Amino acid sequence: MANPDVAAACDRLSDRFERASRGLAGGSGRPDGRVPEPLHRLAAALLRMRVRPALEADWLVRDPVHVSLLGGTNTGKSTVLNLLLGRGAAGMNVTARFSQHPEGYRFASLGDSWIDDFPTRFAGYARHRDEHPPRQSDADLAAGRYRTAIALLDPSRTGAGAGAGAPAFAPPTATTAVLWDVPDFSTEEAAHWLGAVLDTVALADIVLFVVTDESYADERTCTLLGLVSAAGLSVHVVANKAAGDASLVGDIRRKVDLHWRGAGTGLPDACFHALPFVEGADPQARLRHLLDTEGASSLRSAIGREVEEALPRKRAGLAGCVRLLESRVEDLVRPMTEEACVAKAWDETVRRVTDREFLERYRTDYLDGERYGEFNQTLVRLMERLEVPGIGEVTKLLGQIVRIPVTMLTAMIRRALGRTKRAPAHTPEHEVIAARFAVWLEALRSEAQRAAAEDRAWARVAATLDSEAFVAKLTERLEAGYAATRPQIEEEVRRCARAIHEAIEGRPLLLNALRSANLAVDATAVFLVVKSGGLNWSDAIVGPAVAGLRRVLLESGLDQFLGAQERALKRRQGEAMDAMIRSQLAAPVRDLAPAEFGPGIEEEVRADLRVVVEAVAGAAPEEAKR
Ligand SMILES: Nc1nc2c(ncn2[C@@H]2O[C@H](COP(=O)(O)OP(=O)(O)O)[C@@H](O)[C@H]2O)c(=O)[nH]1
Ligand SMILES: [Mg+2]
To answer: What residues pair up with 151 in beta bridges, in sequence order?
Structure first.
């Protein structure tokens, strides 16, 4: 059993590297247009596929040697794998992207405990035994529905089924290794399965990097070769369809050395192989001819020897992979600290802009402005309780407030954003909210754009804020949030009317005064309310209807009490609006830069890495010290 603390540190690291690769600083390509180096994804894969299993005490005896074929499309990966198997078990096809999933060839006698017992290996992948995973359609891939899968196939199987029945042309190079046929990394579609490619590379003790004249100078090939050669695995480069062309072979060799980042000055001679271009009517015939060449037999014996040295090979691979993590720790941590900084700064910006441009201005422009309506509504409710003649018509309209179609707010926002000139029916509050929304959004956009101009980690935040879809989502959320607060405010209005009524009830003189005062609401007041669509309850509209009531109350010395009630109503309304705006608008905007990584992320990653390095050094003392 692995030490649980070390295992947890290892899992945390791989999870964080994986998330960093998708994060703000990692996911968006490089500003210079160059192919990004998949450092974080490979690091995460190495931790899952190699380091984590190696923390188990009997890893070395349980895990066979893994040989993975890596190369661009059509370079001859499957052909080279078949050379090692001595038979055409793996499908060889001129069709690009023939293979979409890693397929492991191993003799059944080897058993599968190396995958069954190490749950972090190919976790979440569908597993197929003795059959190929189903190919996925281009439409499926384009829709982002690549499903991870692997196959485990027995090259010696006869009869029906995948890989079965291929005639043996030569004995297998190694019966104690798993040979992995890996999909390409060079096509557009390969972006979907790059994670699977990296997982299979991370699992490998020996990587055969297959290149041809068409692929060896390709930027993706060079970038990946640089990274894989630095990962401490035993890398062999196979220049396929090239032997015989001395200048081509020489040029490939130079290119490889140029990008080689492993130990020493370049790729060791013993790890460079050139295979000739062979003739043959079909792939099986070409494979057979290729097997007869000198290049093939020297490649077969080189890999055979490597597999024989399984234990030192695996220890060296483990130590090398830990060295890669250590030596690149700054690059690994950088996007996380960048992201943590962006998240913190963005959180502050969203808070500040929301407070200043939305919440404070909602108070000054609506709650404390002349168009505030809810206190008049309260007085109308009070008049209703006092059974003031004529008030019935007005209170009927009050009911409409809660039934205002919420789309009216959206329509106002569209107008405030300049999408339409039409001013639909609306309340003064709608108008304020819509105007604040537009100003708030614009302020956030310019903050994000300014930051993005200096630091590309902000690019995604700025781009999302600009997108129509995101603004539509915000509008929808605002509308829903607003609709949900209306009954709440309505309830506050009723509560306030009740409180004032209770204060009056205890004073018979005041009640008499109210009854003898002619408070009857005349038709003009109702007309005004109706004319405003029943939506505008500001002083200008409802003021005359409640003026008499207000005067009597003030004259009876209730002005302070009334003022306190109004302030309390406004305070509660303001609080409800604050909570709604924060959760419906500020939160989704803040989450554009999610707080995935806290400010202490660098220390945490370094500490976890130290724990893992020490554990690995304990398991493989000689190699780790190198
Ligand atoms: N003529 C010729 N064809 C080859 C040679 N090596 C591979 N091929 C062909 O190239 C095609 C693609 O090979 P394959 O191994 O499937 O490439 P992969 O996509 O990298 O797995 C097949 O039709 C192979 O037979 C060679 O040396 N000579
Ligand atoms: Mg293939």
So the answer is: 103, 128
